[in-house]
Design brief:
- This protein is of the alpha+beta class and about 775 residues long.
- It contains 18 helices and 41 strands.
- The longest helix is centred in the N-terminal third of the chain and has 26 residues, at about 1-25.
- The termini are far apart.
- One of its GO terms (molecular function) is L-ascorbic acid binding.
- Its EC number is 1.14.11.4.
- InterPro entries: Collagen_mod_GT25, GT_PLOD, IPNS-like_FE2OG_OXY, Nucleotide-diphossugar_trans, Oxoglu/Fe-dep_dioxygenase_dom, Pro_4_hyd_alph, Procol_lys_dOase.
- Its main location: endoplasmic reticulum.
- It is an enzyme of class 1 (oxidoreductase).
């Protein structure tokens, strides 16, 4: 009996639950009844973002005010917005369907985070005919605070940037609007809400817990991103709600831009960037003559390393040069020769080139304003590509990539090697300076890849010329009494509501450090091994150095003598020229006050590295590039590359043609040939031959330690080009290296087993860079 009663009760409960659910389904508000109404007098970047999010969820949007002049004032700082109420009132008068549900929201700073279905469900649960967004702050009249109804939990104050309701109720609410366009819509709706009779008649409530609307002003600490199942929501952690509409009201435009990089699914962990390939401008179908004309503005504002390399890369940029115009502003006299050389040798390749030097006495701000204006006033100019001299563009397709992105302002992300520094800011501090956004490190390190709306870009970016002729037509974009030119420019761009983007969809390059760059030497870039090690390696280390082990490039011309590439031709030339420029060669006598003890047993004609203040850089070179090879070839041997003596030797027939057999006072020695044989010098050999290692003869000799010291001899000469004669002879093995390859290194045990001499130089000048190295 009890069991029968229980089954009967269970059946009744299930039936009741089914009927309740069916009743809810029958009364669910149909999505086709919802109409989104917004005001947009012009198409801005923010408006296009709003439409994209609305399209994502299939909202039906009616746009009011298109093409009209905005007279609603700048209510970022002062009350305004009455024009919105006027336009809304006029539009509602034409609507007759009493079941119509109207969602009236701003658009320039709004993003949809979820669907009409969820929005209507939450509206229905509010059990009122009109629901306004809520705020923690009262504005514009704080004296009305006490008149606002108290709420049990949540925000008390009305926000006019978003509300939803039935057509008749909203018509009633705006029926009495007679204000001017520049009067406050917020104050108008607030006075209706705080009037108990009107509030009851229209049946208004606030979305106090941000279930429908999330206004960001005053609530930034409450809102976080929530990533889930291939979509992104904004979560209010204070009320544990997921708002449907996110509004960057007031001074929170940067925050809505940040959230808009993700919401609703612009970027997710599952899909990556889903909008980065939208609205691209393809160049592939265009003839070269049809490519957009780009003016490249090159700005040299301080002494900068590797300027010659910059211009070499500019020439390699994959873009038709007859569709490029160059504006070069050079504030540094030191770089004048490099700019002139580029202009004379390559200027004719470009459609036009304009150079302004230090003699113009134009500061950085004025030069950038001028660059923009040259493009602005050139009817053929389609883009301005701003490029600082310290930018290293490794990607030859950078310009094409940026143009195809089809954005108003877009920068390729570049970073400083080994650091988190980049050419964009993810956020701003309260006073408008740098602040780190939550996603900054992930973007810089490539953990998140996409095209990002950011508040600040610098150093290298592309601007549409149409923008310079419209929203950015003000000549003094870079001027500010308190901000530097880049910050002033970005501030002015943000105030116009224009979005700036940075893309890390490709690897573009890096930016040089210009700190501590000295201009007191002939080839100052040689001293950049600490400040810009990657660029130093690109310029001065042999192209095959990184392939030494992988491609087995180490040769064995004599027993226990290893031969491998180390320096580029440019490095060899620069070292030789630097030493000749210094010019204080030693006399080759035994007495030498430059060394400890003042006596040299085997003197040479040389210049020590410390005489040109290069000893620290030389030791860094040894540690980075010589020590790893030494440790590979001699397992178990490790060196700190302590170098008591570094110098450059000069051999001349009438000065010092050869060096007698000797041991070096070092654990191992590095000897680098700095020029080439048969052009610079000649020699005769007592014994000239090369030991050959082949698989069927002598394929290898196992590297090993014995009771000896070690020598590294790096040849910087090339036989047949720079000199004749010369070389190195190992007496114990009766083995000679006659023609050291320019930029290659010889490594061998030195103190005991490899008794060696320098062979005669018979013509020209031979240079060898030598290091005595101890563990």
């Amino acid at each position: 009996m009890r069991r029968s009663s229980f089954l009967l009760f269970s059946g009744i409960f299930v039936c009741a639950l089914f009927l309740a659910l069916s009743h809810c389904e029958e009364h669910r508000l149909p999505e086709e009844k919802l109409l989104v109404v917004t005001i947009a007098t012009k198409d801005t970047d923010g408006f296009r973002r709003f439409l994209r999010s609305a399209k994502h969820f299939n909202y039906t949007v009616k746009i009011l005010g298109r093409g009209q002049k905005w007279n609603g004032g700048d209510y970022m700082s002062a009350p305004g917005g009455g024009q919105k109420v006027r336009l809304l009132k006029a539009a509602l008068e034409k609507m007759k369907n009493v079941d119509q549900i109207i969602l009236f929201i701003d658009s320039y700073d709004v993003v949809f985070a979820s669907s009409p279905k969820e929005l209507l469900k939450k509206f229905q649960q509010a059990k009122h005919r009109v629901v306004f967004s809520s705020e923690t702050l009262i504005w514009p009249d704080r004296h009305l605070e006490d008149k606002h109804p108290h709420v049990r939990e949540g925000n008390r104050f009305l926000g006019s940037g978003g509300f939803i309701g039935y057509l008749p109720n909203i018509k009633e609410m705006v029926a009495n609007w007679t204000g001017e366009d520049n009067e406050s819509d917020q104050l108008f709706f607030t006075k209706i809400y705080i009037d108990p009779a009107k509030r009851k008649s229209i049946n208004i409530t606030l979305d106090s817990k941000c279930r429908l609307f999330q206004n960001l002003h005053g609530a930034l600490d409450e809102v976080v991103l929530k990533f889930e199942n291939g979509r992104v929501r904004a979560r209010n952690v204070l009320y544990d709600t997921l708002p449907v509409i996110i509004h960057g009201n007031g001074p929170t435009k940067l925050q809505i831009n940040y959230l808009g990089n993700y919401i609703p699914s612009a970027w997710t962990f599952e899909t990556g960037c889903t909008v980065c390939l939208d609205d691209l401008y393809s160049l592939t179908a265009l003839k070269e003559s049809e490519y957009p004309l780009v003016m490249i503005g090159i700005f040299i504002q301080q002494p900068t390393p590797f300027v010659t390399v910059f211009f070499e890369r500019l020439l390699k940029l994959q873009y038709p040069k007859n569709r490029l115009k160059l504006f070069i502003y050079n504030q540094e006299a030191h770089h004048g020769p490099q700019v002139s050389s580029f202009q004379q040798n390559h200027g004719s390749l470009y459609q036009d080139i304009k150079v302004m030097g230090p003699e113009e006495e134009m500061d950085a701000t004025a030069s950038r304003n001028l660059g923009f204006d040259l493009c602005r006033n050139d009817k053929d100019c389609d883009y301005f590509f701003s490029l600082n001299i310290e930018v290293v563009l490794k990607n030859e397709n950078t310009l094409k990539i940026l143009i195809e992105q089809n954005l108003p302002i877009v920068a390729p992300m570049i970073t400083r090697a080994g650091r988190l520094w980049s050419n964009f800011w993810g956020a701003l501090s309260g006073d408008g300076y740098y602040a780190r956004s939550e996603d900054y490190v992930d973007i810089v390190q490539g953990q998140r890849v996409g095209v990002w709306n950011v508040p600040y870009v610098s150093s290298v970016y592309l601007v549409k010329a149409s923008l310079l002729r419209s929203e950015l037509k003000d000549y003094e974009l870079f001027n500010s009494p308190i901000l530097d030119p880049d910050m002033a420019y970005c501030h002015n761009v943000r105030n116009k509501g224009i979005f700036m983007y940075v893309t890390n969809m490709h690897t573009f390059g890096r930016i040089l450090s210009t700190e501590n760059y000295q201009t007191t030497h002939l080839h100052n870039d040689l001293w950049q091994i600490f400040e810009n090690p990657v660029d130093w390696q690109d310029r001065y280390i042999h192209a095959n150095y990184t392939h030494i082990m992988k491609d087995n490039l180490i040769e064995t011309p004599c027993p226990d003598v290893y031969w491998f590439p180390i320096f580029s031709d440019v490095a060899c030339n620069h070292i030789v020229e630097e030493m000749e420029h210094y010019g204080k060669w030693s006399g080759g006598a035994n007495v030498d006050t430059r060394i400890q003890g003042g006596y040299e047993n085997v003197p040479t004609i040389d210049i020590h590295m410390n005489q040109i203040n290069f000893e620290k850089e030389w030791q860094k070179f040894l540690l980075e590039y010589i020590a790893p090879i030494t440790e590979k070839m001699y397992p178990g041997y490790y060196t700190k590359c302590s170098t008591p003596l570094n110098f450059v030797v000069r051999y001349k027939p009438d000065e010092q043609p050869l060096l007698v057999p000797h041991h070096d006072a070092s654990t191992f020695t590095i000897n680098i040939a700095l020029n080439s044989k048969d052009i610079d010098y000649q020699a005769q050999f007592d014994l000239a031959f090369v030991v050959r290692y082949k698989q069927d003869e002598q394929p290898s000799l196992r590297p090993h330690h014995d009771a000896s010291t070690f020598t590294i001899n790096i040849a910087l000469n090339q036989v047949g080009l720079d000199y004749q004669g010369g070389g190195c002879r190992f007496l114990r093995y009766d083995c000679s290296i006659q023609a050291p390859r320019k930029g290659w290194a010889l490594m061998h045990p030195g103190r005991l087993t490899h008794y060696h001499e320098g062979l005669p130089t018979t013509a020209g000048v031979r240079y060898i860079a030598v290091s005595f190295v101890d563990p």
